[in-house]
Specification:
This protein has about 180 residues and is mainly alpha-helical. The protein has a domain of about 90 residues. It is about 80% helix and about 5% strand. The protein contains three helices and four strands, in the order H-H-E-E-E-E-H. The strands form two sheets. The chain has a two-stranded antiparallel ribbon with strand order 1-2. A hairpin with a 2-residue loop joins strand 1 and strand 2. It starts with a helix and ends with a helix.
Length: about 180
Amino acid sequence: MIYSVNDLQNLGFKLGFRGYNTKSVDDVIDNVIEDYQKIDEEIRILKGQLEAVNDSLEQYRLVEISLRNALVVAQQTAEEIKQNAQAKAEEIIKEAEKAARDIENDANERMLRINVQFENTKKEVSDFKTQIENSFSVMLNSLSKSVEESLRGDNPKETMYGSWEDKREDGSSEDAAAYATD
């Protein structure tokens, strides 16, 4: 049987013929009661501390659960951010590549147009040069014929530009030389 402090305080012994010295027994019982009181107080304090530790432990467990959940959420968020950043980077790269292709295509088209314009201009210049050369050749031939005819004595007043005497709009005639001096 486990005695409580009250049990020990109310404990009594029967006296026998040669029984115990009552004072000695009372002193021992008083000491035991005092020790029991100290032990009871320690047990009460330790139970309070244990309860406080258990409460703290429960709080720490809740904090641990919260931290684990927060860590999981943070990992998921980090993964989502990483995936979003990767997708955005790929999108930016695709847009940049498309823009580069567009710029390259535009430049190629402009270069083709410029080359076509250059070739057309080159042809026009060549055609113009040929036309001028032909005109000069015709004029030179005409001039040569005129000079030959002049030297042979044929009509000296006739040239490739008409006669030396041209008629004016009013019907009067005047030497072409006069026109040249006007």
